[in-house]
Amino acid sequence: MAAGNIIVTGFGPFGEHRINASWECVKQLPQEIDGYNVIKEEIPVSYDTIDKKIQALWKEFNPELVVHVGVSSIANKITLETCAYKEGYNRRDVHGNYPKNGTQCSADCCENCIQVGVNVNDISNHLNATKSVKACVSVDAGRYLCEYVLFTSLSVDKDKAMFIHVPPLGKPYTEQELADGVLEVIRCALRQRKQK
After folding, report:
1. CB-based contacts of 167, cutoff 8 Å, min separation 6
2. Who's near 18: CB < 8 A, 6+ residues apart?
3. Which of helix, strand or coil describes residue 9?
4. How many alpha carbons lie under 13 Å from residue 126 in its C-beta half-sphere?
């Protein structure tokens, strides 16, 4: 019997990313990680879908950890995001829509910025010291769907949610190398959760 659930999401196609590296690497993850059942979900690049689906996933699976993965054209390593903002979402999604609250995330939270409760600096240092896939931390998740989904999950539980940006496939990593890096990030985050 599994110790609990981990939700890992990747995004579907958008813009130049007809094959989204985030979903390609998430698909490669095992069905179980350190005794936890892994629920993998492909999320369309849509504000409305995030508003509806993310809260439902939290309620249905009561996860120990939620890891969102997205692709970044400017990334060349695994990038661990440190925070997300409620406002500033002024780019249209794949359906040509903005958030239903204008440029604000619709998550029921009055904070303007939520910090990730997972110690991403420690995880980045661990990856850089032990893995061939390198990592860094970021304070700017991009104010698009990646940051929007992160804010949505952080508003549920900031100690159980995180976001990983991955580079496009082949720049420089394969989908399996990215999956291996994401897997190690998840294992590190789970170890931190057990220590709390």
Report:
1. 21, 71, 72, 75, 76, 77, 173, 178
2. none
3. strand
4. 17
Interatomic CA distance for residues 127 and 194, integer angstroms: 19
Pairing of strands 83-85, 78-81: unpaired
The per-residue pLDDT for range 6-62, each reduced to its tens digit, is 999 999 998 888 899 999 999 999 999 999 999 999 999 999 999 999 999 999 999
CB burial of residue 73 (10 Å; 0-12, 13-18, 19+)? exposed
The DSSP bridge pattern shows strands 161-166 and 65-71 to be parallel
Q: Which residues contact 153 (CB under 8 A, 6 or more apart)?
A: 54, 58, 66, 68, 160, 161
Residue 190 CB partners (closer than 8 Å, separation 6+): 6, 33, 34, 36, 64, 65
Instruction: Please give the model's pTM, rounded to 2 decimal places.
Output: 0.97
Q: Active-site residue numbers?
A: 81, 146, 165
Q: CA 138, CA 140: separation in Å to the nearest integer? A: 6
The two three-digit tokens of residue 1, written as one number: 């019997």
